[in-house]
Amino acid sequence: MEQIQTPHGVPLKKQIARALFKQKVRALLLIAPLLIFILITFVIPITDMLLRSVDNSIVSDTLPQTTAVLETWDASTGELPDEAAFAALYHDLKQAIEQKNHTKLGTRLNYESSGMSSLFRKVGKDVSKMQAGISYKEQFIAADKLWGNLKTWTLLKVYSPKYTNGYFLAAIDMKKTADGAEMLPASERIYLNLFARTLFMSLVITGLCLVLGYPIAWLLANLPMRTSNLLMILVLLPFWTSLLVRTSAWKVLLQQQGVINDILVWLGVVSNTGRLELINNQFGTLVAMTHILLPFMILPLYSVMRTIPPAYMRAAKSLGATDWTAFWRVYFPQTIAGIGAGAILTFILAIGYYITPELVGGTQGTFISNRIAYHISSSLNWGLAAALGTILLTLVLVLYWVYDKIVGIDKVKLG
């Protein structure tokens, strides 16, 4: 069969393929800056977070000979390792001290057991005084009694692998031991409660934004365009104000000597000595975050409601439906897409919020994000922070999947 050719003698099929390839390359070049931006600001940090949450190479890299000897040591016997383990520890620490890595190792192990940081900080002086030909085991125990503690060596053995699930266990109030994972005492469990509080309060904030935002969006969608645009400015006004300023304003309003309590005292609702505690608790976080996130609910709702023809409601009423029946059977189902978009936006923003709960939440209104920030900036336990962040990310993805199964993500529209 004779191939169709262009006027230049090139087969038409080849010419079309070449044109399509150029078109794809052009499209790729157009989106390349966005792809690079996403790769640098999202994919690489997420990957690094996932690796940090399981990385434990500092123990085996700093104490390679010691961890090799401890592989054959059985902690369940209740006896300390033999002389070979202490000799290996001496040689490993001697090299680590020269490279100044022993303090980093102490910091890592101190996350699992307090006292390890100071033990490894002073080990530099202890190792420099040790002499060959004398039992290293006796010299280490004489230098610090912790080297004669079975718990210290068990800790080294448990955390000798390059990868560990210890950070994830700590993130769910468990600890890694020689016998397996164990729950922490009830008085030391904080993270599961924080996750539950974060999830609960995020759902409540999303619900409050929906209850408050739905009638506002309906009003904006049904008013004349000129009036609607003027009122929309009031909705968008928070976006033009600093988040720190808005949160600080709520501190002024809600504190016991603040504006709201002063008005309640003036009205006689409460006494001057019985002022309400409206801040540094969950109530303060709910009020401030609902105010801040409300526009993220209103805008998707408004964009969907604006497209609903008013004739639908009039037709339902002309056929005998009451106002409530017309709204519930005709109008409301058409706003599901806006509700879904607003709920997703509000919930995802709420569950990862940091500044507002930190400023107005006190001890009872903070979120898991505040604890993550603490480990990154204060305790420097980046592994635990990465594990907490990974769990939070997984939780959001699971809830997103559940939402897709119940509502259907294809129904979500932003207008």
Structure keywords:
415 residues; mainly alpha; 20 helices; 68% helix
Description:
The chain has 415 residues and is mainly α. It has 20 helices and 2 strands. Strands 1-2 form a two-stranded antiparallel sheet. Strand 1 and strand 2 (180-183) form a beta hairpin. Helix 5 packs antiparallel against helix 6 (116-129).
Structural class: mainly alpha
Overall radius of gyration: 31 Å
* Element-by-element helix/strand order: HHHHHHHHHEEHHHHHHHHHHH
Shape: flat
Q: Order of strands across the widest beta sheet?
A: 1-2
What's the number of helices? 20
- Uncertain segments are none
Distance between the termini: 52 Å
Largest sheet: 2 strands, antiparallel
Mean pLDDT: 87
DSSP strand count: 2
In helices, the fraction of residues equals: 55-70%
Strand content of the residues, in percent?
under 5%
Can you lay out the helices and strands and say which pair or pack?
Elements: H1 12-52, H2 57-62, H3 64-70, H4 83-99, H5 102-110, H6 116-129, H7 136-143, H8 150-158, H9 166-171, E1 174-177, E2 180-183, H10 191-222, H11 225-236, H12 243-254, H13 259-267, H14 282-305, H15 311-318, H16 323-334, H17 336-351, H18 355-360, H19 368-377, H20 382-406
Antiparallel strand pairs: 1-2
